[in-house]
Amino acid sequence: MENIENKKNTWGGARANSGGRREGAGRKKLPPEKKVKPVKAISFKISKELYSKAENIAEENNLSIGQYAKKILLENINKN
């Protein structure tokens, strides 16, 4: 039986000495053009009446309420 102290790396992988950091191991890095840009979420509360009005307008424009809210926000930000 081999002494554990003589082994270089005894953890990970299906075979002894198969785990750990190795050249070429792990997930490959994405090229910069394929990296996902960080995003932030916005949430807010509105009355049932206001929600109902916004929901109707969104449906008339074939948008989800989230898409409609984003559209309104972007239109107003771009005005300034």
Automatic annotation (TrEMBL):
Spans annotated as Disordered: 1-37
Superkingdom to which the source organism belongs: Bacteria
Basic and acidic residues composition bias: residue spans: 20-36
The protein, known as: Unclassified
Source species taxonomy: Bacteria, Pseudomonadati, Spirochaetota, Spirochaetia, Brachyspirales
